[in-house]
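Lecture 7, part 2: worked example. A protein chain together with magnesium ion.
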Amino acid sequence: MLVLKFGGTSVGDAERIRTVADLVRQALPKRPVVVASAHKGVTDMLFRMGQEALHGKINLEPLRERHLKIIRDLGVPETVMENLLDELANLLQGISMVKELTPRTKDYVASFGERLSVRTIAAYLAQAGIPAKAVDAFDLGLITDSNFGAANPLPEADQIMHWNIRRIEGVPVITGYVGKDKNGDITTLGRNGSDYSATIIGAAIGAEEVQIWTDVDGVMTTDPDIVPHARPLDQMSFAEAGELAYYGGRVLHPSTLIPAIRKDIPVRVLNTFKPESKGTVILRQTPIKQVVKSIGYKDDLFLITIVSTRMLMHYGFMAKIFEIFGRHRIVIDMIATSEVSVSLTTDSDVNLDQAVKELSQIAEVTVEPGKAIICVVGEGIKRSLEVPSLVFGALRERNIKVQMISQGSTQVNLALLVDSANVVDAVQALHDSFFDVQKPVIPALP
Ligand code: ASP
Ligand code: MG
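Predicted complex, written out as structure tokens:
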């Protein structure tokens, strides 16, 4: 079996959905399972509608229009969305009455995008002669924890989904992004979560491949918005793509590879606008032809510096610090320590004030916003002596100051902290030094 996941742009209008039908038809001999996102822009629209309802304003018209246009262009019956729009209207009414929009309610509101889109897509597939059935992932057993806005599947989801999906007649068209917790409340897996749904489902059915159909040619050497001549990569390893998904952010949801790694399922990133190009395949192991594969970045970070003379020769100090961050549910991205200080980065200031207050009782703490991590990714880095000097040489030439450095023990990633203002320059400089066709490719040592 094969999982075909179509992102928001790939199901963004009637024309794209016709392409989706062609791709599904070609995949029929491999028994495809479709996982779909909401039509492009709909999730954002839903989040706005939730906020507006909180302030007493309810207007379903733009959302109805957005869907109606696609439905009419495809010539499928308008009834596909009837019940869902009523349910959404009731929900928004409820929000405006109780004047409360909790993370749980937000997820419920956001879920309508995928629930609407799969019904339209399945109806169109059926009309195009491909027997298909729209299903909500939670009805197949995608049970998650109750971490609304960033839920994760529970282990038992695997088996349940395995049986349920195999029992569906025709091509299942399954909602990405959503699940349900054990209380029966709808959860979401976080923005871009449909990628994660696709691999969760792929792992559950033991798919031979998970295809992520998107609007770029694959995983690129860097963000093409910063470097227009960035190129797609043929192959990446799970470890490389995992680092990039986390730090580069743009192509895959950061957790996407976890289920794929667990079951060793290749993930292929493809372009719906250019179905003939071969995309990037992400596998357990790939031959190392280039030392560096890609330059990623993660912007809008906070740098927290904790200084204490008490740290010197004391055990338990780190434990204390991390206990505080843990209790406030603050996720740490990067860490560097010296004898008397610890520097850390995080991407959100939610709860940060309280954590800093507590930390200030045991150390001097400063928080600086406006930071970014640049990461240089490649399995070959661990075998190369040249990468660090090339990296710092390139940044030196552009007068970019590096505030923190980290290279983990897996050594797939060299991460650097810089000011946000330097991101574009740094990414361009690094891309030039590693991917300029004029320059020789750096060989990996054996
Ligand atoms: N529709 C959701 C979002 O916009 C999930 C996804 O597209 O993967 O984030
Ligand atoms: Mg996406």
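The chain has two domains: 2-283, 294-435. The two ends are 37 Å apart (CA to CA). Keep this in mind for problem set question 3.
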